[in-house]
């Protein structure tokens, strides 16, 4: 792991860029503008920002970095918020939303004392592009053809959806899990190291993984994807949902377990969540933002004939609207993490919230 925080951001990013010749830079600007934008944000960021290269992914003549960005200096006994984007290379809008919010933070920290104080109360870690190789190659999988969201060592407990639920037939088909017994891909191993380091010893943690996918609404998913049963912290999920709806009653997000749509093998957040529960008692709520791309396609049907258009808003005004629309959610999650003690349910509250969650989300199944 390469430490970047020991030097000024401008010097470090200039050194990163100087390693690439002009032709490589032009290709990166065309194929991976999100990486160029991230490096610009880091080069111009205030002192509260620090960064590391958690792993480097080889793609042809390139070594593409997986950046981890830490914001603020909250001590180890404070809660944590982890934001992630770019797990699927085709879903660039997830990374772009994260970058827009990160740029917003960098600019506000130059004058917003309240934000500076808030970031002393919560550990904020951002991984804007987990799959730089897939994004560079303009495909869902990583350069090895593996779908990172189907690559964890966890299997579905009921019938998974054909192909979509993860397959080992061929890396030439989507949703490929990787070879049996091969272990997780380097991108996922880097993420595992980040999660273990960031969550260790924290009294509370929250995470959001930003994707886009087929749907008419923006959805906020939570585990499980490998089975249709409630997670251990389902009462806390319900409390967070109610907190959000009380604060923003006119929102357009739909909270639901991922298994409401399909059951999958190898889900990263199922695996990391269960792993965390075995080793720690402090709650962690892993969320996934699934932006509904069918709304963009409906308003611009010719996007159906573009791989990018299936998962990203292509019209400039619509793209800008999407970047704006999720800023409130990310600000809310930062505030909710810092103030978890004011809304996380007590034992007695947890009992009725769990019952409410079971009735709301699981009453159709056999596990009510």
Report what the structure shows:
The structure is a single chain. This protein has 368 residues and is α/β, with parallel strands linked by helices. It has one domain: 3-Layer(aba) Sandwich (Aminopeptidase), CATH 3.40.630.10. The protein has helices at 9-18, 22-31, 33-44, 92-108, 113-118, 132-137, 186-199, 234-247, 268-279, 294-299, 316-325, 327-338, 347-361; strands spanning 2-3, 49-59, 62-71, 80-85, 123-127, 205-213, 218-222, 253-257, 284-292. A nine-stranded mixed β-sheet has the order 1-2-3-5-4-6-9-7-8, with helices on both faces. It comes from Marinobacter psychrophilus. This is Zinc carboxypeptidase. Residues 28-333 form the Peptidase M14 domain. It holds the Pfam family Peptidase_M14.
Secondary-structure blueprint:
Elements: E1 2-3, H1 9-18, H2 22-31, H3 33-44, E2 49-59, E3 62-71, E4 80-85, H4 92-108, H5 113-118, E5 123-127, H6 132-137, H7 186-199, E6 205-213, E7 218-222, H8 234-247, E8 253-257, H9 268-279, E9 284-292, H10 294-299, H11 316-325, H12 327-338, H13 347-361
Parallel strand pairs: 4-5, 4-6, 6-9, 7-8
Antiparallel strand pairs: 1-2, 2-3, 3-5, 7-9
Helix pairs in contact: 1-3, 2-3, 3-4, 4-11, 8-13
What strand line-up does the widest sheet have?
A: 1-2-3-5-4-6-9-7-8
Whole-number mean pLDDT: 91
Order of helices and strands: EHHHEEEHHEHHEEHEHEHHHH
Question: Major beta sheet, specifics?
Answer: 9 strands, mixed
Question: Which architecture name does CATH use?
Answer: 3-Layer(aba) Sandwich
Name of the CATH class: Alpha Beta
Return the domain count. Answer: 1
CATH fold-level name:
Aminopeptidase
- Unreliable residue stretches: 1-12
